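Late entry, evening session. Most of the bench is empty. Finally got around to the prediction I had been postponing all week. Sequence below, unchanged from the version circulated by S.P.
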Amino acid sequence: MYNIVSKLVIYGDMPKDSILMELSEIIREFETTEYQKDEIITKFYHQVKRILEVGTDYGFDDNLWHNYLTYILITSENPFSITCEKVGASDGSVNEFAKNDFKAFKELFDYDFSEIEKTLGIDCFSTLENYHAIEKPELMYNKNVSEKVQALSKKLGNAKDENEFFEYVTDFYRDYGVGMFGLNKAFRIGYENGETEVGSDIDNIKFIPIKDMEPVVLDDLIGYEIQKKKLIDNTEAFVEGRKCNNCLLFGDSGTGKSTSIKAIVNQYYDRGIRMIELYKHQFKDLSNVISLIKNRNYKFIIYMDDLSFEDFETEYKFLKAVIEGGVETKPDNILIYATSNRRHLIKENWSDRDDMKVSNGLHQSDTMEEKLSLVYRFGITISYSKPSQKEYFDIAIALCRRLGIDMPDEQIKEEANKWELAHGGISGRTAQQFANHLAGLKKEDA
């Protein structure tokens, strides 16, 4: 195996502590030196355990060895794979290096562990190649990743030669992309050194996949048809490469602002939309984040939830510069979608009006203009207001019907009214919580 791995050119820069590199070293030790049987069996078992951990994390089944090798291929971000992500396979000398690597991977797919198992009296690799996973809830892993890896794994396992291997892998890059962006819908920002201090080295930034994103769709949000249409129209333009705007969704809490954006990501994921959630304390890193994603073949929505600033907070200045006004133009594959309970985002005081002056009949205030300048840089602002009493009842009834609650409309209204009086007032969130409560009682009665 070591001789096979050493032939890799494009995919040969794996860390020395990766499973494949360490396993190849162990097999070289097994084949070329005198070894202690118990020690080398322990070393093999350690790598098998690591493969099992990968399989468990991603819900892999059947041939875990093939799944692991496939996972390496679809997560390896290199000039070849990223180019294929953008334009698919194209003519060029790099294809010869790629086919050389795929020929090596084909050998790894077909690698025969039986001699090792026979000599050492073990059967762990045979078990990996015929693995039956324990059924578990989908929330324990990313089903989307699992299905894609296993589908490609079966194709690669049946590939006749490196040419067919090349076709399958490059088609996957073109259709789904490469690396974590090709496999996940949403991400948050983390740091390689584990520190929370931001605004430093771009190489310290990492994207952490959000594996259990809520599977909501826009139809789950009852009402707010005008608001949803504005968001859909803008996102549709974004996906199709037409002119579009950053969006601010503002209004009362519990009205579906965050749900709308999550639903948009779910709806447009297959068309290349990805979401990156950014917290207020990370705004200093916004420019670095944009630098890391601006050349990828995806459309990124940078999502900022519950956006608001107090008087003493100045992070909004970094956001202002990126949205509009900085020297560097914001890339066409990036939009900012934010939600807020405040229309103007930055806390205002009556004292802000003390410096008002009258000039040519116009009132001007530098302080007020500074605070309003951020919201003005969102091209689209969408208002989400609390529903009326009738709308609240309509939402509650619709949600109850979706959950299979068989109760007369008038009784639902009566109970929904009692619920909102004791649970924070009228809102879509209150209606959802009420419907969940009734559904839970129904299950208990059953």
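Two things to note before I forget:
Confidence is low (pLDDT under 50) at residues 348-353, 360-364.
The CA atoms of residues 36 and 281 lie 53 Å apart.
Will write this up properly tomorrow.
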